[in-house]
Specification:
By secondary structure, the chain is of the alpha/beta class. The protein folds into three domains: 53-163, no CATH class; 167-232 and 510-546; 248-501, Phosphatidylinositol (PI) phosphodiesterase (TIM Barrel), CATH 3.20.20. The protein is built from 23 helices and eleven strands. Helix 5 packs parallel to helix 7. Keywords: Glycoprotein, Hydrolase, Membrane, Transmembrane, Transmembrane helix.
């Protein structure tokens, strides 16, 4: 008997489905091989409609994979935004371990590697689910995921204890990155709508459909509405943006020369620094000199010259002893910022021969270049001849031994401030702590010197109204400097003068209307695409159900009819003769698929 028109009409559909099935085979083999080392087809199992996508163990593994992805992402973002303080972290480890190593960069590379690995596994899992395959994560990957998870948890716990202020830095970073994170999150959820729509229509149980759709819509709506709670001082009209904060060289230009040396301060002036910051210690014989640490071990060769006094307080050395030390070779050897390679031959030779700098020479340089200075002053330890007169000795150098003008000096030490104001009323008194405006005015404070983590536009505006300027330290990243610019800070202390001085505009500056347009447009486009994807899968479901007369099955990411339906079509050939039985042809199909 000749085949009917209905049967003939089904043939192209069946042929299309079979071709799609075989064309997807290499792709599925690659996915399963990378995810579960299941390179051959007989090793894999297809998920039937209504069935769970994997066993209980594999469900737990997939859930663990998602948790690990989230934690590795959080740590990677946390540590990448902490780059501003990498130098402090590395020197902290130097003080505890006794040797220099760029731990911060190594930690960042490891975090990026773990995140990339877990992201790849998660992407493979989503693709396998989209292709209708049951998940099986290879035991080697299970171990890798556990190691990634353990690393992220341990790193977050340890760094939260050592660098608790970095969480404040992370929150500050959202004021710059939140608009871009919002767009990225919406884009990710839009891409996930395709596999989610596939499984939504493939699940028979209403509870499963409600669970998947409810969770997806909850996350999607949260992302859509996140901008409502976003705050950023960089959302303003450009006409209201103030002047760029003045740059103060932190210990000079420590990326271009050894810190607290004359060469470092000269480089800071050349790089456009409007002020110079340093740390002052008084030698045993009463000579104020520049040294940040309480010992000489980190920035001099004291271990070679005075091996028995490596850990002795720097203030317990005489100036004659300090003059014999080299204060520059360490910079080329350890290269703390990874910038020593940029120095020319002359600069390298100059850095190699730097010595400990006196406070008087520092003030003379600032006076000649017309720069303001700010410094921390360390009180000598017990038993030091100048322990009780360290303030007056420092004032003697400013007033009698250098040509600097008192108004160029931002006096930061809080000890004996009333006495200092009596001895030299022209000094610009600076406070390192926040206090009510009335209290600051009573103490004649004209500037605040605060850590950047306390950055607040409201605070800066309040103090500026009382003619009290705000300096933020230490800011060396472009995004942090942009944020300080938008908040209205008058100056910042930085390690990266050569980079910040070239920034002509904040990295992120947008008017509220522009941001609202970007936000609404992103959400509308995303919702439209997601709606079209779900409508498409619904239409496809209805169309395939019409052709097969039964519920379609998802296999290898394409909708095909039950095998019995395929054989019912192929059992009658064009000549009307019966074909071979399905049992006889099934192995041939497997063979063709394998090839």
């Amino acid at each position: 008997m000749a085949p009917s028109l209905t049967t003939l009409g089904k043939l192209p559909v069946v042929r299309c489905r079979l071709l799609q099935r075989y064309e997807h085979q290499p792709f599925v083999s690659c996915l399963a091989g990378l995810y579960g080392c299941q390179w051959r087809r007989y090793q894999r199992t297809r998920a039937m409609p209504g069935d769970c996508c994997c066993s209980k163990l594999e469900c737990a593994s997939f859930a663990l994979l998602i948790v690990t992805f989230c934690l590795t992402l959080v740590f990677l973002y946390f540590w990448s935004e902490a780059q501003n303080d990498y130098n402090d972290f590395d020197w902290f480890n130097f003080g505890n371990l006794g040797f220099w190593f760029p731990w911060s960069v190594v930690l960042l590379v490891i975090a990026a590697a773990f995140f990339s690995y877990v992201t790849l596994l998660l992407l493979l899992a989503v693709c396998l689910l989209s292709e209708g395959q049951k998940l099986y994560l290879h035991w080697g990957h299970k171990i890798g995921v556990l190691v990634s998870l353990a690393f992220s948890i341990l790193a977050i716990a340890v760094l939260s204890d050592l660098c608790s202020k970095e969480w404040t830095t992370l929150l500050l970073s959202f004021q710059v990155t939140a608009p871009y994170l919002h767009v990225g999150g919406v884009l990710l959820m839009t891409l996930l709508s395709w596999p989610i729509a596939l499984h939504f229509y493939d699940i028979n149980r209403k509870v499963g459909q409600a669970l998947i759709m409810g969770l997806y819509l909850a996350v999607l709506c949260a992302l859509y509405l996140v901008p409502l709670g976003m705050y950023s001082p960089c959302l303003k009209e450009e006409s209201t943006l103030g002047l760029a904060p003045a740059l103060i060289g932190h210990r000079g230009a420590p990326m271009l020369a050894p810190e607290n040396t004359l060469m470092s301060f000269e480089k800071a002036v050349e790089a456009g620094g409007q002020g110079l910051e340093t740390d002052v210690t008084i030698s045993y014989d009463g000579v104020p000199f520049l040294m940040h640490d309480h010992t000489l071990r980190r920035t001099t060769n004291v271990q070679e010259v005075f091996p028995d006094r490596t850990d002795a307080p720097a203030a317990m050395f005489t100036w004659g002893e300090l003059e014999t030390l080299n204060a520059g070779a360490w910079f080329l050897h350890r290269d703390p910022f990874g910038t020593a390679w940029s120095l020319g031959t002359e600069d390298r030779a100059q850095a190699q021969n730097q010595s400990v700098c006196t406070f008087r020479d520092f003030l003379e340089l600032a006076s000649q270049r017309g720069k303001q200075v700010i410094f921390d002053l360390y009180r000598p330890p017990k038993g030091h001849p100048y322990r009780d007169t360290w303030i007056t000795r420092t004032l003697e150098v400013i007033q009698n031994e250098s040509s600097i003008q008192s108004h160029q000096v931002l006096w930061l030490p809080s000890d004996l401030r009333s006495l200092v104001q009596q001895l030299d009323p022209d000094l610009q008194h600076t406070s390192a702590s926040r206090a009510p405006v009335e209290e600051l005015q009573q103490n004649h404070i004209v500037q605040l010197n605060l850590h950047y983590s306390s950055m607040s536009a409201e605070m800066i505006i309040e103090y500026a109204a009382a003619n009290i300027s705000t300096n933020l330290y230490v800011i060396s990243q472009l995004w942090l400097y942009s944020l300080a610019w938008c908040t209205g800070a008058q100056s910042v202390t930085t390690n990266a003068l050569q980079f910040l001085n070239n920034l002509n505009r904040p990295l992120f500056l947008m008017t509220p209307d522009e941001y609202n347009l970007m936000w609404v447009l992103t959400d509308v486009v995303s919702f439209t695409i997601i709606f079209i994807i779900f409508i498409f899968h619904w239409w496809r479901e209805q169309r395939l159900a019409f052709f097969s007369g039964s519920k379609p099955t998802l296999e290898h990411g394409t909708y095909i009819k039950f095998r019995t339906d395929v054989w019912s079509v192929s059992s009658v050939n064009i000549l009307g003769e019966p074909a071979r039985s399905p049992l006889a042809t099934e192995p041939n199909l497997a063979t063709v698929s394998e090839h």
